Amino acid sequence: MATIKDVAKLAGVGVGTVSRSMSVNQSVSDKSRQKIKVAMEALNYRPNSMARSLSSKKSNIIGLWVPSFSGSFHRKMLQTIEEELRQKGKHIILANAEGANTDEERIKCLDYLIERDCDGILMSCPELSLVELAKIASRYPNILFLNRSLPEPNKNFFSINHYAGGRLAAEHLVGLGHTEFAIITGRMSAQDAQNRHQGFIDYLLEKGITVDPELIIFGGYKFTQGTLAVKELLGKNKPFSALFCGNDKSAMAAISILHSKGIQVGKEVSVVGYDDIDIAAYTAPALTSVHAPIESLSRNACHKILNLCYGENLPVETQFEPHLVVRKSSHSVNTIKK
Amino acid sequence: MATIKDVAKLAGVGVGTVSRSMSVNQSVSDKSRQKIKVAMEALNYRPNSMARSLSSKKSNIIGLWVPSFSGSFHRKMLQTIEEELRQKGKHIILANAEGANTDEERIKCLDYLIERDCDGILMSCPELSLVELAKIASRYPNILFLNRSLPEPNKNFFSINHYAGGRLAAEHLVGLGHTEFAIITGRMSAQDAQNRHQGFIDYLLEKGITVDPELIIFGGYKFTQGTLAVKELLGKNKPFSALFCGNDKSAMAAISILHSKGIQVGKEVSVVGYDDIDIAAYTAPALTSVHAPIESLSRNACHKILNLCYGENLPVETQFEPHLVVRKSSHSVNTIKK
DNA sequence: AAACAAAACGGAACCGATTCCGTTTAAGTA
DNA sequence: TACTTAAACGGAATCGGTTCCGTTTTGTTT
């Protein structure tokens, strides 16, 4: 593989000139630029990214920490971030914490990214405590936390107001006249699952409605967990007319099971999901869901990390509000009663 | 940040000794090792991976090219590869070709990986022609192709025998007594979709069964595409008792739509999917599917790239046979008739 | 104790870029 | 034409590791 020296020799110029010719706004004569261009093509020259990184002290790599690839939430995030950073010529390396069940393992997973000299890291970990996150941030400055929030707004925490999202779902169902609720939550060790749940029940409480504790199943965000949770729910043999699910995957599982038991979703039971993933519009019936603006969040986090690591000056927001998308899986309770 | 020189100075040894102490099987006395360890800890030393890469001419990065993150197929692949390579201390960088619709864009996406000096590349592209792949391979030696096959077996092509998989599905349904078939395929520009389809209809042909061309919908692997395809299918108002779907996502969409139309899947209509993704066991009814051993394929491809790039000597297979997993969505046609 | 092989070691050379510094060339002004 | 100033340039120093080479130390054998 040809090096910059080979190019310089063939073009009859110094290595400095070749290097300068590769970046804009550097004073190199058109004549030299042309000679260098010819030489590069003749030698099929491609700059060595490792040498570049070493001398410029920029790896042009951003690390991305995700708790799994399975969920639509993080898939969307991954997809958006990859697109956004690739456009800027940056590369991402991945750490999937799927198998990591303890804080220690989660941090080991992070160290795997740090050791590679990423310029910055985007971390979407719903489970590490805020204390733990603070420790991490002090040890490693260029890190942003996605889908996490602090009590007071912080420029390095990008969050969706899931509490408000939970309230939106409750408001919608109460508005439809429902009074008997069931809930399938995500893993309650995760901050976002807590917030969604809390928002939901807080709104109900304000309206004087309480949910039978037996009808709250602490499930998870996976399809399979949703399946098990609904089965458990139905096993209780207690009436409910509305079901709020922690995310769309578990809502889809719920719809599927309810359907197979001959219960008509959108008529006998209203189901509301969360996240508004791509396929929510295509389930049968189409799923009413709280839309979480993951894409905006991801893009803004990318902007911030670009500002931080490469001196760009892109606009950044850190707080994102969900909104409700009403489809066919939720229906007025009055119709049901008659 | 402390460098190896700082460590050497503090430990009172040469830089060579420090470097040697970091790799096993290098002759360094226990005394020196100890002094160096102490110095490293005192300085909180972490080797600079870029400098390391430059001098060792190994980036320890493997590039991964995938056509999208959306499908379960590639998600599983990504997950397996990430796990396998991380275990070996390698890092992966991603190129998602989601938006790439032309060969040119797909190759640009590949160049994005090459420019980063990956030691090797794993590419799972179902759509580039074999000629195009050959060109790529000649330009860039350390590349393996996943889920692609050549007429004759090739050590750099890792493939699942999808043709046999298609036949398995057909054999199963014919065995159940079905004679009236409908098919929803993947995108026929993709090699694997072609093979699955060809295997299926070839088996039927051998049994003297032909499929009404109107009941073959050229759909896609996405849930949404499946939804549209089934609707189109039902719009034809032609009878069929068995439906073969190009993958599980579209099969799930089919089940959902059929169910909502009051058609009982597993009784009136048998549905067989392909891939056997994790949630296939949890749909209602549970999905009969052709199991594609993506995990094995991915692991073996990792082994091969480790052998190729780092002189390891792991066992490698390149051909993988699918098998059928019978669940509740397929049923004998005799029961239906009575 | 002498002789010798093997282990341990220090340090220079090298990997392939970027950047800084001092010099040459070109352009503009009087 | 002579002088000034800026643009263009060549090449050395640098980034932080690995590895090779020649020397010193250690340990074993006679």
Care to describe what's here?
- The structure is a homodimer of 338-residue chains.
- With 338 residues, chain A is an alpha/beta fold.
- Chain A is 45% helix and 15% strand.
- Chain A has 13 helices and twelve strands.
- In chain A, the strands form two sheets. A six-stranded parallel β-sheet of chain A has the order 2-1-3-4-5-11, with helices on both faces.
- In chain A, helix 9 links the parallel strand 6 (181-185) and strand 7.
- The mean pLDDT of chain A is 93.
- Chains A and B meet through helix 4, helix 5, strand 2, helix 10 and helix 11 of A and helix 4, helix 5, strand 2, helix 10 and helix 11 of B.
- The structure holds a DNA duplex (30 and 30 nucleotides).
Query: Structural class per helix/strand content of chain A?
Result: alpha/beta
Biggest interface in this structure? Answer: A-B, 45 and 45 residues
Helical fraction of chain A equals: 40-55%
The largest sheet of chain A, given as strand count, sense and whether it forms a barrel, is: 6 strands, parallel
Would you list the SSEs of chain A in sequence order as H and E? HHHHEHEHEHEEHEHEHEHEEHEEH
Distance between the termini of chain A: 79 Å
Mean pLDDT of chain A: 93
Strand order of the largest sheet of chain A: 2-1-3-4-5-11
Radius of gyration of chain A: 26 Å
Oligomer state equals homodimer
Q: What is the total tally of β strands of chain A?
A: 12
Number of helical runs of chain A?
13
User: Beta fraction of the residues of chain A?
Assistant: 15-25%
- Please mark out the parts of chain A with pLDDT under 50 across 5 or more consecutive residues, or reply none: none
- Overall geometry of chain A comes to elongated
